[in-house]
Protein 1
Amino acid sequence: MIVSWNWLKDYVPLKDAPADVVQRLMMAGLNLESTEQLGTDVIIDLEVTSNRPDCLGHIGIAREASVLYGLPLSIPEPTVAATDFSSERITDDLRNYTSVEIQAPDLCPRYVARVIRGAKIKPSPSQMAVRLATIGQNVINNIVDITNYVMMECGQPLHAFDFQKLAGRKIIVRRARAGETLEAIDHKTYTLDGQMCVIADAERPVALAGVMGGASSEVTESTTDILIEAAQFAPLSVRQTARKLKLHSPSSYRFERGTDPEMVDWASRRCCELILKHAGGELVEGVIDVGPPRPERTPIVLRLAQLERILGIEIPAETVRKILSALGCREQAHDAKALTTVPPSWRRDLAREIDLVEEVARIHGYDQIPEDVSVPMTASHRTDDDRLLAKVRHLMTAAGFDEAMTASVVPERWSAAFSPWTSAEPLVTSTPMLEGADRLRRSLIPSLLDVRRINQSLSNPVIELFETARIYLPQAGGLPREQWTLAAVSGQEFLVVKGAVEALLAALHVAEPLALAEYPDPLLTPGLGCRLLLGDQLLGFLGELSPAAHKTFSLRGPTTIVELDLGVLAQRARLATHYKPQSPYPTIARDINLIVAESVRWADIAATVRATAGQDLERLECLDAAYRDPEKDGPGTKRLLFSFTLRPQDRTLTGTEADAVRDAVVAACSERHGSRLLA
Amino acid sequence: MAAQFLADLDALLAEASAAFSAAADGEALEAARIEFLGAAKGRLKAVQKGLGTVAKEDKPAAGKRLNEVKEAIETAFTSAKDRLESAGPAAAGGARFDLTLPGRPLRVGRLHPISQTIDELKDIMGRLGFTPAEGPEIEDERHNFEALNIPLEHPARDPLDNFYLAVAAAGAGTATAPPHQEHAAPLLLRSQTSTVQIRVMERQPPPVRIISLGRVYRPDAADATHYPMFHQMEGLLIDRHATLADLKSVLRMFATGYLGSDVHVRFRPSFFPFTEPSVECDYYWNDRWIEFGGAGMVDPNVLQAVGYDPEEVSGFAFGLGVERLCMRRHGITDIREFYKNDVRFLQQF
């Protein structure tokens, strides 16, 4: 709401400097956006919260100032003298002259019409033009300017029709017919639908109710007779219409927030008064005021004890009563404990006791609320999820990964590129979040691959990224499953990333050994993509990106990806571990170099070693698995060089005992995996 | 002849000591060692031969002296060797080590600045007794609006101001399903973390003292100060006698905890559907008031919506934008930096 300082002073005799008044208003809820000196005037831009449409006119702002400064508020009382038309051929009663029919009372509870004949269209008087220009309102002609002026004065939008251009000289308020069109005064043609409210004449829509007038009945230089509309329109309908048509106006802005029902007739009379004064003409006797009588407002009981209970301070009863009556509440009764009051018509936001508590506090001043009361102590705790997350983040950063944060919504082609957790179609947002991005992601991997691409384009040499976020897995009925997920994308090879996963499982003390199963997916290189399992529970996916995927994501390779279900880790992690005493005895190690068939996997050999070496086994390391010598070892073979370290809890192991373990391991491997010891 | 022998010994000791001390590097020392202590042609060996010329009665004394000198020369050598070794490998004859070579790179990742800010907020609020709570990011209208006292006609519910959700039609490139699934409650991405308030109050009786931190979504066009996804922190305290003064005091303690020195806060009236009275909170820092976030006393309608009795309990809630806080602390001027994830940006924090 843009306020002219000079205009404001028409209603309240402010003596303080504009800056002081603005500060006071701000501390009472009218937030200052800016002030600007313009000639002798000061333009003040105030942010009005959506619950305070009464402050969308100068009178409303003046009322706030008058309450805060204890100054009188003077609202002009419009006087309109109607002309006696009995001597003329035209019927002298407005009711015979025109008619208003409300066919959509839910969208338009009240419509007040007055008619002025013989007005002269010309430029507005200079003070009015200057004031409108000061607050940024286009200056058009005296009639249109007066409707705007009164709106900016009291917050009630008005519309002036060229009466002669209304077919049948009547007003019908109805829903638009689907497909009906209207050329508005911005000279654009809008196609309407059945949910929009229009003002129509006998033939067609002539205005979009509460939003904008139509070009056909616009007041022009040749206009002489004017119908003044002052009405009330349903906020929701006005807002929906304005949004659908992308047609926002000062009028729709006010109707959307709700206007003062008691101000409708005042605004109509004020408008007519100013037209008669500045454009001449004659007012047709009478007024057409359609709509049911407005119900009395329900009185509100304010228990004084509630103020202390909610605000934490006591406010004297006299102060409370004074504040409420200055705001326009009519007190009906009061005693030592409570008062009963009727809120004013312009404050639809005041309907409950708590609303009055807020009003009293606001005017009394929030600076009266202490900032140093003692709040009782309560114990709080870190959640297990937060503990887990801290460990995950520690490990990932220690492993050299930077943490990324990417948008939850991705373009369709990314969504389709990788969805290992579900085959259910993704959820789609009604409007794209970012350019082309409207799919709720089912995996973090595509987002991280794109971040990797951006970083490659920035020539960043090391791009190791991880993210923890939710992915959205639709399920039948109700809310989707939001799976808490960890993903990482690396420029290192498979085993390096697998090592990070193993280190993570170790850091979380996951007892179940990690198992892998091949996972063919177009995103991954065949043979280098796998499911990660803990027992039979799916933990996640790990793999190297396929050449095709590198192309899809415009990436230079190699790239390894991993994605884990943090929920599974949360179930399996042991956040508090038990101490185990360490053996004080020396270790003894043995190396074994085996020739095995290509099909034999390390995991199988390792299981055999563990089973054979038993509880004295402290460490088992694979030293080399890459060496091949088919000529010497035979076709389809590979070598596995590994080392194991033994250390019993309770004694020193002898070399002979260690040799016996080695021989047993060699024998067991030979038996179970057909291996041979390299001679 | 004994006198001559003893004189030779003394001279040898003096010369050897001088030679060892003078050796500037391992090579020189080794040469000196061979000269004096060499097994075959060392000068000690040569002088030692002189013992034969010493008269028999003088032999024990001369032999003792020989041993003393021999030991002294060896000691001199050892100490010269220690001196050179402790002087470093270059002095000992090895290649010179360039101390200015870079250390082996140890790449440690960094946490995202938003994560770091969130951790700090949780830490401060934890000390004030607030325990973190979580809720879904995808919500129904009850939790995102209705229970928060946001009626259907409220502008915040406009479909264009929210990310409503539908299921993509199978196989189709575009969403052809209606905005709301038939027979199912409409879903949307939460527009505020206040939804978590409702979920917590629905499942636990008062007192409540929680914070919720997480992603929220609003269809703003991305620019330097807006992003359609951002993070909020929301605090909620419900108890028998919670007041606006408690709220102000908690926010002051929070600001003091975050800024590290005693700060003052002020309230300006505001409007949020789920609180009444509603305020904007500012804190005074570096001689000016800085916007902090919105707050207020929980609206009785909200308490009622979750089955609490507003006559029995009261409470307050507050919320703030994490990105804004983080940007101010680090002097970041464009919110989009957070979601671009340039490694050079991430490595700054």
Protein 2
Amino acid sequence: MTKVSKRRTSAHVGGKFGGNYSRRRVIKGLAAGAGAAAIGFPNIVRAQKGGEVFVRTSGGSYQDALQEGTWSAFEAKTGIRVVPVAANTAKMLAMVQSGEGGLDLIAGNEPATITLRNEGALVELDKSRFEYTDLDDIAPVTDHYVGYSVFAEVLVYNKEVFPDRHPGSWQEFWDVGTFPGPRSLQDAKAIAPNLEFALLADGVSRADLYPIDVDRAFNKLSEIKPHIVKFFDTGALGASMIAEKTVVATSLWANRAQVLIDKGAPLGIEWNEGMRMLEAGAILKSAKNLDNAYRLLDFELSPEPQANTLPKVLLSPANKKAFDFIDPTLAATLPTSPQNREIGFDNSGAWWVENRDEVLELWQEFLLQ
Amino acid sequence: MSIQRQAHDGLAELAVPPLPRHLVRQGRRDWTLIMLLVPALGFLAVFFAYPMADILMRSFDGDQGFTLEHYGRFFERTIYVRVLLITFEISGSVTVLTLIIAYPLAFVLATVSRRTAAILMAMVLIPFFTSILVRTYAWIVILGPEGLFNQVLGGLGFDPVQLLYNRPSVLIGMTYTLLPYMVLTLYSVMRGIDAQLVRAAYSLGASDWNVFRRILLPHTMPGIIGGSLLVFILAVGYYITPRLMGGDRDQMMATIIEYQVDLLLNWNFASALAAILLTITLVGFGLYAWLVGLRTLFESRT
């Protein structure tokens, strides 16, 4: 099941701008459907031979970059075959609880990773097993997960609709008088709702965002809600709504927006008040290929694979030494460049873990209001 | 053999009379019959009954063993009852819409020549054989801001309309995918009506309206009730269409179950939601069996 959708994902990349989205979304949908419907279908690929490692993937251009920049080199170096598997949090948890295996190494956004840690699904990392990577170069390093990359959620707008002046802050995003047109923001299903952006729009400074005043954020979101066509619940939906002009401005992950821009979509990225988020690497307790998982994690975090992989999809390496291998002009466009660092802020994974369940409950009610 | 005939005969075959008694009476034959059922029963036991029992047990499972707290929570928080009402509202609207569209269509199918009926039936059935995901995305393309529908509107000089991610788009998508169930049910009932009744009514001077009201409507009532219940039951559990085409307010039971499973990892509460949905479906089937009889699901006559 996963195998088919995986193969199709890589096959369609490089298609022309336009007809691509619906196809990509079909595949996304297939993957999501497979994840939701078949909790724990035994992975048939496993049985073939030793020397493999099963890695969680979210597909798309990110997976292509990993294949080119990291996995191929890893396979050449170690002879260990990397098998990408699509899985959501629930599926991963079910895999661990059933002890069925099928996934060894995972990468995911920090809140989801901490959720898995709290459910006892992650291996406590043995720091002595890292050879390629000096963990002192990585931020953050915790008992159960390590930073892998940094991505940014930013304000994305349509340049044809706003040719001269565009919304340049979240306050201006909320200003539907000056910048009219339908909008979108993130749904709780896609990591978390944009409470931070709502507070910024309400005049809270970047330094004072956390702990989030949840009521205040929801009140501010209610203000913009009549102008929201639909809160995007997958990155694919967010991308297609802004690309197909269903909305004229949205929050979106910068790497997603960049893929659209590269294909010719008339979109602009506003880095001001962008939110940096952590993608973390961890090993599942049910891992059947523990040694290989450690080796791949070790390799993935080392400077050169990071440099060869992440900038392609507009992600910043979590390993600071990786920047030695990145062209400075390219580095300047990444989420953690000095310039972007100054105008953006860091998402607090810790706050979200404490409060995520409560926010998710409130979110459902908010949607129905 | 035409598709229409195939469909017709296929339905009729399911209603074959039971095996001759002398075959069934003998004990050996009894065993043969049971053995024939083993593969199907085994499959259902492992892949249907067991997971279903697991879900039911989870829904009563709390920190201290047996609990009703998950069901209590459903009724405590207004949001879940509201989602249930939205689910009924959407399913009810879809049922009415499919009935309005399917009734005249089934009537035409039942009255035209076999050849024409075959072509029309193919038009009903071929989309039915296509993946629901593909059809849903096709609608997203058609209804999109630069899609076919808005291009036609634009060509006629109208402003584009927002037809995606709201209630109308959910209704369009679901009505479209569920239409064949209604058409087939009504068609099988209409085929069974004795045409002489209609002729007799006309010969006695009945108007079109009277023929409809006093002959057609009462005779097709089992089909109307059966088709409506079938569509309603299927609609209550719908997931893909409301998820992909719906707006923020079009949350149905299946979408909030997914939310609990995947985001909140609250599997016991999700099981309770699933059990409630299952109960509603069973009540629907119970009504169906009581009012129409499950046999008509497989038969071509009333």
